[in-house]
Structures are given as C-alpha cells and as structure tokens.
Amino acid sequence: MLIIFYCVILSLLSSVRCVKVFTQKPAILTEQKGRSVTMDCNIEKDERNSVSWYKQIPNAAPQYVLRYYHSNSDPYYGDGFSSSRFTSKAPSNIDYQLIISNVDVTDSAVYYCKTYDDTAKELRRFLFG
C-alpha cells in the first residue's frame, strides 16, 4: 500500500493540516453487468465509529453513497442511492465493505471510503466490463 502525506496550509492564520491518502492494489476492479462487486476498506485503526463511501466519476464532484456505523446494521444513504443495490458491512472493527449488486455501466467510477477523522482512502476504480 502506498501512503502519501500531503500538508496543506489553509492560510497564514490557520494551522497546518495533514491528510493521509491511501491507495490499494489492484487499482482497477472490473465486473460484468448484473453481477455484484465488493470493495474493501481497511481504516487501520479501531475507531468504533463509521465509514462513509463516495463515488466520483471523471470531471464531477464526489457523490455521497452511504455511511455505515459499525454498531448499526442499517446504512444511511445519500440521494440517488438505495439499499436495493448498495449496502455495506464491517467484518471487523477496522475492515469495512461496500457491496454493489446488479452492477451497471453507470457504476463505473472511483470509490472512496472516509472515516470521521477525515482519513480518506481511494479504493478502486470500478469499470464496467
């Protein structure tokens, strides 16, 4: 796993904020139309909180897919995403999964998971194949 640290100075009066960016291998995950795909996110530290999932297509802002609380079995969904196709689970306190059922070409995107402390992880580019 490649870990890159970026530090951004927001202004002279604010403090420096560092964000960890992770990339998992393989970078591209391909699946056939109508099948299911599972993407894994390891948050590395047991926060016992939640993970949010985002979908980003080229030249567009990220879309909020869902938030999954480790202690709650029902995700909270963003606009346009529903439990009929998108769900999440946590096999452990640090491992979370986004599961997309009945995949379609419109699901092709980069998917991110994010913990409450603003740690974001680029998971995989999902391509319809």
UniProtKB/TrEMBL annotation:
<keyword id="KW-0675">Receptor</keyword>
<feature type="domain" description="Ig-like">
    <location>
        <begin position="33"/>
        <end position="124"/>
    </location>
</feature>
<dbReference type="InterPro" id="IPR051117">
    <property type="entry name" value="TRG_var/const_region"/>
</dbReference>
<dbReference type="InterPro" id="IPR013106">
    <property type="entry name" value="Ig_V-set"/>
</dbReference>
<keyword id="KW-0732">Signal</keyword>
<dbReference type="InterPro" id="IPR013783">
    <property type="entry name" value="Ig-like_fold"/>
</dbReference>
<dbReference type="InterPro" id="IPR007110">
    <property type="entry name" value="Ig-like_dom"/>
</dbReference>
<keyword id="KW-1133">Transmembrane helix</keyword>
<protein>
    <recommendedName>
        <fullName>Ig-like domain-containing protein</fullName>
    </recommendedName>
</protein>
<dbReference type="Pfam" id="PF07686">
    <property type="entry name" value="V-set"/>
</dbReference>
<dbReference type="GO" id="GO:0016020">
    <property type="term" value="C:membrane"/>
</dbReference>
<dbReference type="InterPro" id="IPR036179">
    <property type="entry name" value="Ig-like_dom_sf"/>
</dbReference>
<feature type="signal peptide">
    <location>
        <begin position="1"/>
        <end position="18"/>
    </location>
</feature>
<keyword id="KW-0812">Transmembrane</keyword>
<dbReference type="InterPro" id="IPR003599">
    <property type="entry name" value="Ig_sub"/>
</dbReference>
<keyword id="KW-0472">Membrane</keyword>
<keyword id="KW-0393">Immunoglobulin domain</keyword>
